[in-house]
Amino acid sequence: MMGVDPQPPVKEQDVFERGVINVFKGLSWDYKTNNPCCFGKRIIVNGLVKHDRWGYILNWGWRRDQIADLERMLFLLDGKTIPDNRHDVTIRLMNFIRDNPHQQVFEDDLFSMHYFQKGSGHITFKRLDLVEK
Hints:
- By secondary structure, the chain is α+β, with helices and mostly antiparallel strands.
- It has one domain.
- It has 4 helices and 6 strands.
- It has a 4-stranded antiparallel β-sheet with strand order 1-6-5-4, covered by helices on one side. Strands 2-3 form a two-stranded antiparallel sheet.
């Protein structure tokens, strides 16, 4: 095709740095577990979900992007390829919430997410070896 520039290759270091910056920028420093210098065993994010009489709904937008960035960072640290965004943690979380609207805990290989009616989510890292890197 004429006039179409191919996409430049994605540099893993750029993805990693952007992900770290995006996640840290969105953390609230009102919680003791959120450390402005490094990640600990757990972080707390506001605005992860909405709750109404029908159950929970995953919020879309920048918070969703932060969770996806967090997963990308852990995949890079583990030496794995970054998953397609159609199969990332946010899609799995959205499907879990859709299928279990009244459950409050989602778990996969990297995270355990406990979310609450006020919208906050406690994200516990299962692979502390990656977090320490």
